[in-house]
Design goal:
- The protein is mostly helical and about 325 residues long.
- The chain has 13 helices and five strands.
- Helix 3 packs across helix 12.
- The longest helix is centred in the last third of the chain and has 30 residues.
- Bound molecules: tryptophanyl-5'AMP (TYM).
- Tryptophanyl-5'AMP binds next to strand 1, helix 1 and helix 7.
Length: about 325
Amino acid sequence: MTRVLSGVQPSGDLHLGNYLGALRQWAVHQHDHDAFYCIVDLHALTLEIDPKVLRARTLDTAANLLAAGLDPEVCTVFVQSHVPEHPRLTWLLECTATMGELNRMTQFKDKGRGQDAVRAGLFTYPVLMAADILLYDADRVPVGDDQRQHLELTREVAVRFNNRYGPTFTVPEAAIPTVGARVMDLQHPERKMSKSVDSPLGTVAMLDDPAEVARKVRKAVTDTDGEVRYDPEAKPGLSNLLELLAAATDRRPEDVATDYERYGDLKRDLTDALVELLRPVRARHAELSSDPGALHAVLARGAARAHEVAAATYARAAAAMGLLPA
Ligand code: TYM
């Protein structure tokens, strides 16, 4: 069976972008792949985060993943820092990737902008991500569009390592959905919806209640020309709403556009569709959160299973590079 791996940072409330761009695909992939899904707490340390908040969010992210449809009987859900091979392989890959390659990554520039002390970990972040993927011999990596560049780097590093030290890693492919891969902020449709940007009205959380969803969609920024047309360049706000409705109803945004003449009608139907989409997620999250012991147990089982696979890959890579076995 082919392998799938993906990850999510426990750095804030998960939102519609995470759900439509990634988690919903994860839930589908778990049934036809050997699937590993990782809560990447080490990545969350690359930006300032309160230790208590990180701990609480890591467990809550697990509840969110299960609420979004992951079944721990079918796939492996685990926390990155529980599997020590992630930072260990990162070092080997940092000695494979180059400064020039990391310098070309756009994410650390975006996230580091305006900070006077950018953490070294933010710069090497993509190498840790490559380790996450390569440790599991993942064939496919379901992610949103913003991770495309990191996946490219992962592939290049894997190929270079294999060429230099002999066949060691599976070279993975990104699996990016055709609709919903880049959900934009409802207030600032020129930038993506993001956990790490403070935009309370522009971000629809996966756990928002129906009233919050309705308020945010009602206030979503559009434009003044009044024509319903899918045109992300000229009409980013409206096109984002069309794309969201398309993703929620499994259609194409161009087709959805033909159903509407007025922005208000589109917003009304979008609200209804999002409320229905998120209703079961909210209900399951409430149930799961009432039993933290069960969540810890899921993560412990996940870490044990992940560790089995990761330890074998790490040993293979270390031996290939010439490290003397302990
Ligand atoms: P993160 O935590 O930012 O996001 C988790 C997933 O959600 C997708 N996503 C979006 N999709 C559509 N529209 C958006 N506005 C949007 N925002 C986020 C992301 O593409 C991602 O798939 N570096 C990764 C985490 C990571 C990882 C990995 C992913 C670490 N190791 C290994 C895959 C494989 C990140 O920060 O995702």
